[in-house]
Design brief:
alpha/beta
Length: 333
Amino acid sequence: MELALYTPQLGYYTSDSTKFGALPSSGSDFVTAPEMTPLFGEALAVQVGQALDATGTREVWEFGAGSGALAQQLLDALGDRVTRYTIVDLSGSLRARQQARLAGWGDRVRWVGELPERIEGVVVGNEVLDAMPVQLLARHAGAWNERGVALHEGRFAWADVPTGLRPPMEIGGGHDYLTEIHPQAQAFVRTLGDRMARGAALLIDYGFGEREYYHPQRHMGTVMCHQGHRSDSDPLADVGRKDITAHVDFTGIAVAAQEAGLDVLGYTTQARLLINCGLPERMARGTAAERAAGARLIHEHEMGELFKALLLGTAGAAWEPVGFAEGDRTHRL
């Protein structure tokens, strides 16, 4: 997964393919919430702005900024409350798109390739954790194996080897079972905790809490691919030419954050976050097309329920985040 997504010039995110777009005719593979409607960023800015005020900071850090749509929306909405907007993105082609889109903001926006030793500000990551490489664990006849990739007659093939690795909780039943663990995403959050001197981190992605993620019935895992606005479950085909993702284990992310000294300030669905931040009122003022796009963000059968939001803060934070005021699910992590 690491090689397929991030190998220089050859990986999916390091190539110059279009990736983000609303329709297959654009040559894109999938659409994210900021590309669907600017209402997403406008509503999200309510929570980001409150986090800036509560932490006494004026810098936003965005990881994996895609086309730059969310950065543009947040900058437009927050205005002078943000003195610097820093984007961390490994993709040279996407960085070029972002720079063209955000040129009007001048040197208020900057790009970096790695984290500094100290961060003060609000971190935003929309659909970032799902693109971090995972390890596959497969249980056969009660024995756990790590599933890797081998070459067989010149083609990629799955290969299982015995392992001492285990999912973070026992999975009932004796049936065969395939799942993922997320050491890289958890390491990312620990690094944030180590380097964040003052601030907060808002992470939005599709996923579940631990009990739902490792439910006995979820026996096929969550790895999936996106190409031409179609989904498939074969990451060994068209390697480097399509996205590979896995759902997020939000319990594991929350625990890793706490181990690194961060507090969990809230966990809820994307729908509840956006509703709490005033999305319905913004939809009511929009056109029919804008209302339809906004509805996709919050309807249960679209993005509203599957996508979750996790808000982390530096230790001792004493503020109540508006986006989690109703419908908080921290107790379900």
